Amino acid sequence: MEIDKSIKQISIFLKSVGIIPLVFFCILFIFLLAISIQRFLIFQIFYYDFGIFAHILWQGSRFQIPYINHFVLGKIMFLGDHFEPSLLIISPIFWLTSNLIILSIQQGLVTFLSSLMMYFIALKKNIHKIASLIIVFLFVVFPGTTNPLLTDWHPESTAGLFLLIFIYLFLFTKKRWLYYLIAFIFLGFKESNSLYLIFTLIWIYILTKKKDALILSAISVCWFFVAINILIPFISQKFYLYTPEISLSPIRIFSNITGNPMKIQYIIRSFTSFGLLPFISGFTLIPVVLDLGLKLIPMKTMFDNFTFGSHYHVYLGIFLTLASITTIAKILVLKNKYLSYSIIVVCLLISAYTARKLTSSPINLLINKTFWIELQNPNKSLFDLIEKVPKKGSVMSQNNLLAYLSNRNENLILLTPKYENFNPDIILFDMSPDQNANNHWESNWDKIEIIKTKLASDNKYSRVKLSNPNYFLFIKRTL
């Protein structure tokens, strides 16, 4: 009897969800998690930035005030780099396990949940299930959505989920206190998020005329200027590091954009990634234009990136997808269904071509044999090396290895020939040939040779015997 009841409940659930959406999201869930953990398993995540954030979250989970060693600002409390207090709501993840792979899993999971939120928003716009799945496909195919899973760990993917939850609550519910709370959490993931919330609220206000959009915009403006002009300089005791170089001359701005082929490509490929659908989305295009302007207008920023190969394009992917939802909703009400479906198919083909040939979207990994082979073959020798490192003590190591030692309270320092200035308890490096250049970022082979030579004659440290002669582990004799 109970079995029959359970079968009936499952049948009702499958009927309400639909077999096709269920299969689609199951495949998507597996794929996004695979992308996120594959880099971890083959030791291609780095202290900058996976290790930095992992160390912040780890210290927070142990109820310590998180400090980081910044390559420009030195040792500072974490809020002195970017103002990101909301990071601490993720810290309890390390109550579940001390294994750092949990952070890669978390990033894959929030990207999957963002995809679900896009699906729910599309359904709320009276778009049928298949068209809603097409929208999710466009969202995931956009490299700005999935490249963060290949480039360490950053808060943007998590913050993007909160932005989508905020939009859903604001547009489709009356839970005022809840969308205010979500808005503040989103703001707390980075000081610049206030700008993206303002971009969103301009569109929302035009759509709804709700005063809450104006109130939250005013709060966002205050948050931004207080964070960059007062809080960050006060905490770091230094200047705000990320102020872009901006010209007020319209001619210079225009020539700066049109004279840079990468910026032109960035604009074109942003739209072709969505089959050009956002172009006719009306007011929903406003956040897209403002986001593009924020990236393209500055003459120079600390991290110029117009290739989608980083975490800087998560919000653009969200805005472009929302614009595509608006356009598809318009297309589907056309009386000529053959025409409407033909337009959607053409847009899908444009998106697929862009992903395959122009933007190198991570979606291509779905059919990449090497990717799936590497996923099943973790770098066991390096994991064994990490296991031999004492669980306590400050560590100096190279960019990739240091990331895997972030689950400790003590100081973490990138490898330098002047190691005596930092007095680390443990020094670890790998001199195997043919490594990824990022492994030794902020260092090089000549510097590592100097470190190796100095440590060989340094009586304060003893070398641990390891089976691989290319691995070097030195421990302070007093440890």
TrEMBL record:
Pfam families listed in its UniProt record: DUF2079
Keywords associated with the record: Membrane, Transmembrane, Transmembrane helix
Transmembrane segments: 12-35, 41-60, 72-95, 101-123, 130-147, 153-171, 178-207, 213-232, 271-292, 312-333, 338-355
Entry superkingdom: Bacteria
InterPro entries hit by this protein: STSV1_Orf64
Protein name: Glycosyltransferase RgtA/B/C/D-like domain-containing protein
Species in which this protein is naturally found: Candidatus Roizmanbacteria bacterium RIFCSPLOWO2_02_FULL_36_11
